[in-house]
Each structure stands twice: as C-alpha cells, then as structure tokens.
Structure prediction request, 85 residues.
Amino acid sequence: MKDLDVMTISRVGQSTFPKAWREAAGLSGGGVVEVRPLNDGKHSLLLTPRPARRVGAVGLLRAMRQCPHDFPDAARHTLPFRWAI
Prediction:
C-alpha cells in the first residue's frame, strides 16, 4: 500500500477509496468506517474500519453473553393434555 494516495470527492460528497486501502482494511465488498476529525488545523480526518456486526441468533447470543447480570430461571409448569380417543 502507498504512503500517500489521492481521493476525489464529488459535489454531493461521494468518493471512492483506493483499492489497496479497501483490501487491506477488509472493505472490498463495502462496509462501515468511523470518521473522526483530528483538529490539526488542516481539516484532517482519521478513518477507522468498524468490524461487521453479527446478526441473527449468533448476534443475540453474543449480546446476551456480554450482559453483566444473570438471567433468572424460567418458572416451569405442566401443560394440560387432551388425550385423543
């Protein structure tokens, strides 16, 4: 990857990042990037790729594991059965 590369930004604020940077950051297929101003007087930005979030049951399970409190045990009860005759 180059030390210096140039990007062009359109009038509506769209741009394409260099291919080498997208591949190195794991964003070849697109993704989310966090943008932070550096406040250095040159209007510099710091771009950090955000890791993809897990969705579905895997993401829910991961979120539940990170919960600081235990889940209470479920109260169980027997269901009435109707016997077919």
Summary: The longest helix spans residues 56-65. The longest strand covers residues 33-37.
